[in-house]
Amino acid sequence: MRDLTKGKPIVQIIFFTIPLLIGNIFQQVYTLSDTIIVGRTIGVKALAAVGATGSLSFLIIGIAQGATNGFAIIAARRYGAGDLRGVKRSFATSIVISLALSLILSVIGLTFCGEILRLMQTPSDIIANSYTFLSIQFGGIFAIVAYNLFANMIRAMGNSRTPLYFLIFACVINIGLELLFIVVFKWGIAGASFATLLAQFISAVMCLVFIYRSFPLLQVSKEDFKLTGADVKEHLRMGLPMGFQSSIIAIGSVILQLMLNTLGSNAVAAYTAAGRIDSLATMPAMSFGITMATFAAQNLGAREFGRIRTGVRQTLGVSVLFSVVTGALIIIFGRPLVNTFIGSGQPIVTSTAQTYFHFNSSLYWLLSILYVVRYTLQGLGQSLVPTLAGVMELLMRTFAGLVLVGMFGFAGASMANPLAWAGSLLVLISSYVRTMRHLRSLENTTPEDLWVFVK
Q1: Residue 239: enclosing H or E segment and its boundaries?
Q2: Of 15, 233, 257, 303, which is least surrounded by CB within 10 A?
Q3: Share of the chain above pLDDT 70, in %
Q4: pLDDT at residue number 452
Q5: Which among 61, 2, 68, 15 has a CA at the least distance from the CA of 34?
Q6: Element (H, E) at 59
């Protein structure tokens, strides 16, 4: 367990980030293995059916990750303040709200699953398989929410390694279960969906067993489940905006994908291949950002305001430098990297993907600033401004999809991410500057003033 309120900030931040980074990479491997197994064992149409549900699956996972991240920030702040009873109450409150959230999402998803797929103009030859895959996912949302809640709570207490071990195990289990359900049991697309959910459920159970065997800080009792209105309100105020923020980003991606489809299969293939590489390349920046939420929350609770500012400055330097180097490498080696996905016999797709890299990889440094600033604000209890920043991302991606794609074709689609990053930062920066000034002014104040700040 790592106490982020002590030691050199950047050293603590880097050591906390490394397991997160490895975990995020394995999350990408998790997704990639699904793609390979379904495509190779069931067929292209089955793969298309899973792909057609991708944005909706991202929407579900985004809400689960965002909301439980928000709950964990409250627990981290109480841990930093030494309020161990408050940590347990926070965990109990989060469990109750998460159960309610799972039920609501499942009911809505199962009720409107078919209508959603039709609204997305899912091709008729794959809509049945898409419905099967997605309805199983909606029915098992509780497993996704449970894993994210338990893993985020463990990280909030300064332990980023244990959730990594469980994620790696889940990745291996998922591959084994998919092969079992699809190849041996012949369950088809349903087998792929069941395997994913069962792997998540096993990971959630492992997290829970770890908590009740080795993690006293989160071992709640019946007394902790006596919820108060203030606790519920505080958790909803942090969790729902962060979940909503993830959902509106997913909506922007759906709109962009719809317009990208009009450019033809080569453009879609180029964007998909480049996006896979892009996701891996931006993992370090995202991991540093996630770390900053916990770092800021713990140090806010401990009233180490100067340490927060120092940690942000140092993390920005490391993350920006890493992003510049990574972006340059992607641009230089982009063509052979794309060829690992599509082979060397698709020069048009390879060349088109390189356009994507020129617009995106050259601006990874902008994304690294966005992640650090946004997650720091969230760790400090700010929820409204990051949500507004998410709305700006939606607007920018929609603008790119509806306007720039028509004007510039694939180049217009490639501008979507940088525009979203820049627009989001425009919203965040002024709030960040004000927040840092406010923190400086709080250095000689009382804990009651801190409560006013985080409200």
Answers
A1: helix 229-260
A2: 233
A3: 89
A4: 45
A5: 61
A6: helix 54-80
